[in-house]
Amino acid sequence: MRTFIIFIAIFVVAFAKEDKCEVCTKVLNDIIAKVPSGKNNNQDAISKTIREHCATTKGKENKLCNYIGALPESAASVMNDVSKPLSWSMPAEKVCEKLRTKDAQICDLKFDKDIDWKTIDLKKLKRKKYVF
């Protein structure tokens, strides 16, 4: 019985962690992929790549870029808190978790879920999950 409870607890934690900071993780992984080879440890090159990447983003990704200060119209900037750990080869998930302590909005961003209108039961639909 104890092993069953432990298994369920691990299962719940694994699925709960899946949705955390999904926009931040995706954007930072895209940025890491765009950094020129040989400049992975250069903080200035990473900052430049972040700004170039954020100039082309839209939607939730653009909102994240605004939160981290990579856009010209951003009110505050935590670019050093993003580029410095990336220059140390810290994984994007860890960088996002550290940014969460600075600004909780960064990890609150979620991608919109696609709705399959043919199989969905509108009577059982949660309003919070699917906003029209």
From TrEMBL:
Please, one GO biological process term? dopaminergic neuron differentiation
Q: Does the keyword Signal apply?
A: yes
Sorted keywords for this record are: Disulfide bond, Secreted, Signal
Localization in the cell: Secreted
The signal peptide here is 1-16
Quick one: where is this thing mainly located?
secreted
GO CC list: endoplasmic reticulum; extracellular space
Q: ARMET N-terminal domain spans which residues?
A: 20-115
Family membership? Belongs to the ARMET family.
PANTHER family documented for this protein = ARMET-LIKE PROTEIN, MESENCEPHALIC ASTROCYTE-DERIVED NEUROTROPHIC FACTOR HOMOLOG
Q: What protein am I looking at?
A: Mesencephalic astrocyte-derived neurotrophic factor homolog
Which species does this protein come from? Panagrolaimus davidi
